[in-house]
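User: Can you help me understand a structure? I only have the sequence.
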Amino acid sequence: MHNQFDEPFGLDAPHAAGTMHEPFENTFPTPPSSASAIMSPCPKCQSLRIETRNYARKVGGAIGTVAGTTSGVAFALSGAEVGATIGVLAGPIGSVCGALAGAVITGLIGGAAGCAAGAAVGEVIDANVLNNYHCLDCGRTFSSKPT
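Assistant: Let's start by predicting it. Here is the structure, written out as tokens:
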């Protein structure tokens, strides 16, 4: 009995996604460009070549990271205590390593949480307060809502 899986696939074999004469790369749709697929055209020149600036999101993420790491360091003592308690099982060296690991992990978690929160606040500011979009053809900046 002969089925489609008996013969090995070679370079000349047709593939399932396209036709026999169609190259493999052309079988997938091209993804839309990031800003122009989501945004309306520039209100001044109607160009679709638009970029997002996201200044508040970047600044909010940076400030949130610093604030989160700072608060993580404040909680590092409790993380170091937990790490030291767990590390006691491995002896005095394990206690020191556990305390350091607990402090570092607590700082990293605080920094990551602060970055996420700051970026979220910055994204709201970008969308509602700042002119977050920049036309690459005429140079105009505008918000997502028509002005």
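Now, to help you interpret it: The helical segments are 34-38, 55-74, 76-87, 92-128. The beta strands are 50-52, 133-135, 141-142. Let me know which part you'd like to focus on.
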